[in-house]
Amino acid sequence: MDLAVALLFVIAGYFIGAIPTGLVVGAFGYNVDIRSKGSGNIGFTNTLRVLGPLAAAIVLTIDVAKGLAAVGVTSLVFSGAPTLLSSPTSVSIDDSLVVVFVAAAALIGNNFSIYLRFQGGKGIGVASGIIIGFSPIIAIILLAIWILVIATTRYVSLASITIAAGFPILMFFFYDIWPYQVFSLLAAVLAISRHKANIKRILDGTELKFGEESGKTSSDN
Question: From CA 124, how far away is CA 45, in angstroms rounded?
Answer without folding.
Answer: 11
